[in-house]
Amino acid sequence: MQHVLKNIDLQLYEGDFTVIMGASGAGKSTLLYALSGMDTPSLGKITFGGEVISGMNSDALAVFRRKSCGFVFQQIYLIDGMSVMDNVLAAGLLVNRDKKALIQRAGELLRAVDIPEEAWNKFPAQLSGGEAQRVGIVRALINSPRILFADEPTGALNSKTGLDVLDTITRFNEQGQSVVMVTHDMRSARRGNRILYLKDGAVLGECDLGKYICGDRARHEKLSAFLEEMGW
Amino acid sequence: MRKCFLIAASNLRRAKGQTIAIIALILLASAMLNLWLMLSLDYKRNFDRNHERLNAEHVSLALHCRDREVLDYLAGILEADDRTVQYTMEDALCMPGSFDYNGGQINTEFVILEKEAALNRSVGRVEIVEEGGYTDGIYLPMLYGMDGSISLGERKEITIGSNAVDYEVCGFFNSIMAGSHNCGMSALLLTEELYGELEEKGYAPASTLVSVRIRDREESEAFEAMLKNAVSSHFPEVGTLSNSYELVSSARYISQMICSGVVSAMAFFVAMIALVVIASNVINDIQENMRSLGALKAIGYRSGQIISALLLQFPAVAVLASLAGIALSYWVFPAVNAMMISQTGIPYETHFLVMPFLLTVCAIGGTVALAVWLSSRRIRKIDPVIALRQGIKTHSFKRNKVPLGRTRLPLHLALAMKTAFSGMKQNVTVSITMMVLSLVVVFSGLMVENVIVDMTPFINLIVGEVADSCVNVNVRAEEAFLRMMENEDCVEKVYLYHSMQVNHADQNFILVATMSDDFTKVNNQEVCFQGRFPRYDNEVAIAGKYAGENNLKIGDEITLTVDGQTENYLICGFTQVSNNLGRDCLLTRDGYERMGNLENLSYYCNLAAGTDIDAFHERVSRQLGADVNATINVFYVVNGSASVYVALMELLVAMVLTLGGAVTVFVLYLLVRILLNNKRREYGIMKALGYTTGELILQLAASFMPAAILSAAAGLSICAWIINPLTALFLRGIGIVKCTFTVPAGFITWAGVALLVFTFGMSCLLSLKIRKITPVALLR
Fold it and tell me: Between A59, A71, A93, which is nearest B688 by CB?
């Protein structure tokens, strides 16, 4: 059997914006799925807030995901047959039974990501890529997850809408939301305060960038140097 | 063409499960279709084949005399009539009698013949189908040896008139016109010595059996009426008994008619479900493979080629499945055949039937091709670019059904409703399946309630009148009999219920006339389903079926003849009794006696509960002696005749329920497969969001329930409402015009609930495949 991830000993910290980088096939997404309980590792142990999730069965993992994790996907993955609001509530109502409070929170989040009220009853196919991804972020955050996992969230977007999405994620991180993001885009990676570089399934190196400040050149150079050192 | 083959082969490989389920549905439909065609096209022909093979008579007339003058007169009439082809006159012994059979009693008019003479008859030859090498004894119609309740070598007590005789059963024979108690007369063969002994004892009057073959068998009833009328008008003192080709050919195929009716209904419904499933499969295939279709069109495939591939794929599968279905029908046919022979009493050799084969294959292949063509026409409208974008333009965003923010439903139920409301094809398929199942449930409930558990309603409908005892006495002993009945504490009610044959002179048809002094006394008041029973001597109530066939209405006047005496009667009501296949009428005793005299009378008696009926009969026979012609334990007689129908119904109910269940499972399997294919991505997303497998299974199963609940409620109500008229339609051939079976509301309600629980449970079970959908597979 060939292992995708090898000898990884990693701790993630609350409030961090952790970025996982690496070349294609390095195991970035596999690591993200394992950390988020989307996939179960064949060996090793994953502990989340003191709870071992690597031994859970699929239903227990589902309950863990709905309560503790939020997901933003590269392909967005809104449900086609549901309106914007229903996409958000389909995730929210799993955890929160107070529908009124939930609708209020969904509204606040949608407004916060610049989705106007008239768009809430639209279907995903009627939204632009950027709008859809911002709805995806709202859906991921509706249950106030302990970690927001984002897998190449700008991968399917053009540069302008990609930037908007990154700004949104960054803003939520600044408000205390822990984020783990997989990307191979340096512009996206710059938003993180902790960069992990994966190669052949192992963490090759780690870089602490500190808090994101827009236009901070020194930070950018530090990241470039780190990536150059990693052979990127 | 090769391209079409490639696409078809690729489609089949891709959807193995669906193909297997469709094959199973078509296999069932074609098996039943072929079975129905075999039963309906060849069984009646088998009667005719046997009729010709044994050179059977078209009209039988048993005369209770051997007087040369009567026979010469009759021979003169037969020879003068150009319809006569061949006739014979043979000695026989004729008498009503009975014997125990299958937990009951067979009570019929016996025509007893000497065995060797019967085997050598030039008209109406009898053939031995089984014998055990015994030298002296009796041969019975093969019908009674089919189910093993009477076996070779056993001693059988036969009651002839009021005398019991005891014979060893030497064998069983096939007689076309007198081989069953349904024929109006039932033949018994005795070996030479025993026949001579019985003749000497004088238990049955020396009689003559006249067997006639005529040119046109469709005229057999008219010919029979003419012969009877000729004898009774010239020799009113000579008792007669008769039957005709038309009566016997219908009477011996009642079970086949009921069975093929049920099988045809099931075949039709299963075929309809299969077509709906195929059509929705095609539509779903188009939706699901929009991108592939776009790619095919983009690389140069024409719409016609893609449609041709579907037309090649489904009808080819259907034709192959129908061939397997036909093979299946031949595999189960021996069991069906054995059941049928035990009802008809006529041997049938299974052989390959070309016409049912061709009709089945063409009907299945043709309808499937039509369904595929109709549902695949939208392929022509697909634009390659839009199709490559996964048919994005084809989506409708007009309404957000069940918005989660506004609905009061719990989350999972709300999501199930969203699925339910967005899948019209799914709802139509579920609804049709539920409608069919409703019919199955209501039919089963009706048969369980009215035939299997308590056969009284069935007996009331089929037999007409049932009491505890029937005593046939000479008319001269009538007063003594009635006095005795008054003094018998166990007798609760006694009333005249006697049947005689009359000729409906306007149509020249023989009708069985049942008479009573007072019809308000008869137990089954539902025999007269329209109008009323006759009260006065100029009134008649006639069979509804016969009235319909001859355009007779209440208030019309008809002419009846007995012993050459003709009288007019006013129709006061319509009746239904299957005993005489709808060829009967009711008259008051005075009404009958306007035409003819009664020599003996049948009185029906209701006895107190717990009365020993046989002991009662013994007392009557002891007191009235030779004036008692026959005593009948009606329950035993009815039980003997009706038990074969109960066995048939049990089998049919088991068959339709099993089949209904199997069809539901196949349909649900296909629907679940289609939903899982359509919603694979959505379920992946939902699992990623934290929905558990169990929650998604419940959602999927619940999405079938609105259509299932509504269609089951509507289906059960409609079926409960129409089941009696529908049953009457099936039974019309045996004289039932209005069916009055009890519709078991409680049974139907609980069966409906069970049906929904079954549907929900089965959907959950079939949805277990959701376990295999992982969020990570969606993301990779």
Answer: A71
